[in-house]
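Recap quiz, item 2
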Amino acid sequence: MPARMSGPRRLLAPFAILAALLAASPAWAALPSWNAGAAKSAIVAFVTAVTSPGPAFVPEGERVAVFDNDGTLWTEQPVYTEVAFSLARAAELAKADPALAARPAFAAVLSGDRARIAALSATDLMELVAATHSGLTVDAFSAAAAQWLAQARHPQSGRAYPDSVYQPMLELMDYLRAGGFQVFIVSGGDRDFMRTFALETYGVRPWQVIGSGNVTEMVEADGGWVLTRTDKALGDDGPDKVRNLALQIGIRPIFAAGNSDGDLQMLQYATGATGTRFGLLVHHDDAAREYAYDRQSAIGKLDKALDAAGPAGWTVVSIRNDWRTVFPDEAR
Amino acid sequence: MPARMSGPRRLLAPFAILAALLAASPAWAALPSWNAGAAKSAIVAFVTAVTSPGPAFVPEGERVAVFDNDGTLWTEQPVYTEVAFSLARAAELAKADPALAARPAFAAVLSGDRARIAALSATDLMELVAATHSGLTVDAFSAAAAQWLAQARHPQSGRAYPDSVYQPMLELMDYLRAGGFQVFIVSGGDRDFMRTFALETYGVRPWQVIGSGNVTEMVEADGGWVLTRTDKALGDDGPDKVRNLALQIGIRPIFAAGNSDGDLQMLQYATGATGTRFGLLVHHDDAAREYAYDRQSAIGKLDKALDAAGPAGWTVVSIRNDWRTVFPDEAR
């Protein structure tokens, strides 16, 4: 097609008609990894309603969509990707610093012993995350994250982490953007960690990534100014997601997607007002192709939000039934 | 021109050539309110350098510009616009609430006596701002701000506040956007206050407005969910501007504009790294057309930042000399 597009303009008329036809049924072209069913139909009906003249129309500048990241856009099992990064980075730091290596949490990650690492307490993990996420410049942190992401592999699938994203959700973000939506990520993950891959992986610009983070301090270095990450962390989960997105976006979203109780308030806020609104919960029910977990899971627990979905009218997406393919490499 | 543009396509060729010529010299067309001089030349040279192939080229996604608001984009004398709003709103609240009206600060604004209002202490002002900025929903606050802005007039010029913006700065924002820049506002003002006019007045979307604000709380109301503004305020001045813009934008700006010592750190951060960067300070030196103030001013004090400008290579814009027109109504 591209070769013929460069021909004389009058030859383009048939293609223009074809393009118009495709534009008139964008879901057909835009959501190929979604199986036909209630979830896909609801998404298409929502986007059609808010983008078409009529009572549900929403002006383009007010079409704001927010997505959780871990478990909603990419795999969060068996550990959050950012925790995997923190463990790997902590081992590196311990290698270079005997005093650090003597501390129990660091000794565990340095040992590489999976059972010892799995037995780390929440306090241990916080010590490791504090060591890898604070006391360095924002640029150094981002560089370490990018370097790790470039070579790390998921322990079970063997995929690179940026390849562990959900193809149907990539298509959904594209479909929303094609409908004039501004797409934001609102995640419990560190925003600078996410920013190292969000543009390339999701097409989301750094300023549309909202997450947790460390308070920064500006310091003079080499005649210039840099930002260092202090040890004071700012959260972005549960109600904090709503606070942060309201402060940073300034418009109530009309679409929110999540997968766990940490997304409950964000979905309530996005859908808890008049007008046509959409709440989406990814339900991990596919042990064969991804993972199956919900109410009892230590990671990505989906319990209260699942109970809230019915009364609130949210769309619960079954990975097993609604997704034709899960990962991009299966779609190729 | 628009009428002729609707004619047959082949007639458009001459206009296309004209448009190309204009595009080749965008500053000529884009900055008409700027007098020829060092400031205008420096701006044009910077934008040309970072948008043209060569050693100073910056990819479009990294062209981030930040602007202070009060005194940089619009008049901040004799009082910040937001304080004028707060005083007017506090008087309204006191009218409806005798207990409030009995408090000295509220009694002063209720009296309408300019001398008494001018004599209010910082503590008094904080009490008034707390009353007008907290304890209500975000939507109610925004509605009150919009309502006030629609009818309020500047006490000396008689202009509506959205007409008290600087025409040359509007042109500068447009010029940067035409060069692929993302334009953000980073101001000590309340972000939800600014968001009520930023899009219409500056062409800046709500999520590109960074400012101070109150911590919010999500509460259930009428079967839906709303956000209320608590009395805990978050600042956005001086070093906080850098912290906030780093958290929210995620990319170090390559252009920063301000007018006071509250913008010092933001300019240092934007220009304090390698690569072609631009710092701009608006110097209020035009008592005839606007105001003249700098080192001794209670509002918009420009002292340390003015001293820093020379060594840092920032462009100090003289309103008197560099701006052909100051306000939009003078440009018509």
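Chain B is about 45% helix and 15% strand.
The first strand of chain B starts at residue 64 and ends at 67.
End of item.
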